[in-house]
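Q: Here's a chain of 243 amino acids. Please give me its 3D structure as tokens.
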Amino acid sequence: MSNGKRALRLGIAGPVGTGKSSSIANICTALAQEFRIGVITNDIYTDEDARFLKAAGVLPDERIRAVETGACPHTAIRDDVSMNLLAVEALEEDFDPLDIVLVESGGDNLTATFSPALVDAQIFVLDVAGGGDVARKGGPGIGRADLLIINKIDLGQYVDVDVDLMIEDAKKAREGGPVLGVSRKAPETVQALADWVREVHARFVKGDHTPVDPGPMAPHFHAEEDGEGYMHTHAEGEEAHQH
């Protein structure tokens, strides 16, 4: 199902533990028989997310590759995307044709956004265990990603979160932008996610999809091993690290 050019590049971002890798696994499981999919995972010093996906058996191992950024993983999806772009292009070249390449950001906060130079569309992932108020807090990823996933909705009853209210709050924060509540235990929600990916891919193939820049990440704090840390900003023209 190649478009005769390059694959649709879809970014997945969100805080640690929200289920970015499981969201990728859901997409691959639902669509692997329909599309040729590749995955690039990002983290600072580890390939753990890639190993998780390989162990899950959602794709052939060789179509899942890890990028170890060696620094703030968000820098490699926003400020200098060359490391990721080379990995995506190499994957596409090795398995030409691919229809979709999923690029997972390393997670540590609510601010991550992808450069449109790297991906064509982006998904931001939250989960109910992070608190029902998180979606209301907004931010570039929550507010302006192409899709917001509220993940692990089956856990709402166990963590005292009103899932319906959280989804409504998310829709308000996104001014009506698409929001999906997803649980891997609810096949219809995974199917809704797969349908969204199908729609984006169809627009991409037709030439009707234009990547939208959700804007730069907000300044955020990075802790260091000695207990201290620094403020990190991705604003153009500012120092990357502000101690």
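Q: Can you summarize the key feature?
A: Confidence is low (pLDDT under 50) at residues 237-243.
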